[in-house]
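Hey, resending since the last one bounced:
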Amino acid sequence: MDIKVLGPGCNNCARLEANAREALDALGRTASIEKVTDIGEIVGYGVMTTPGLVVDGTVVVSGRVPSVDEIKLLLAV
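The structure tokens again:
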């Protein structure tokens, strides 16, 4: 599983990354988590409002910080 956190490095981006890591731990799963701060790459995903969460190349959340429980549901699929 490949996870990307899209954003310029703001507090919400850091919180999203922390929530994603916590969700992975709770599920007992491992994944690479990459921070993407390049605006061109972020826009390339079609994300106009950060933070964004990309799982295996698909944008699953944009413009908000999902809870750990919501991320667990997104990753369990």
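Residues 2-76 form a domain with the Glutaredoxin fold (CATH 3.40.30.10).

Sorry for the duplicate.
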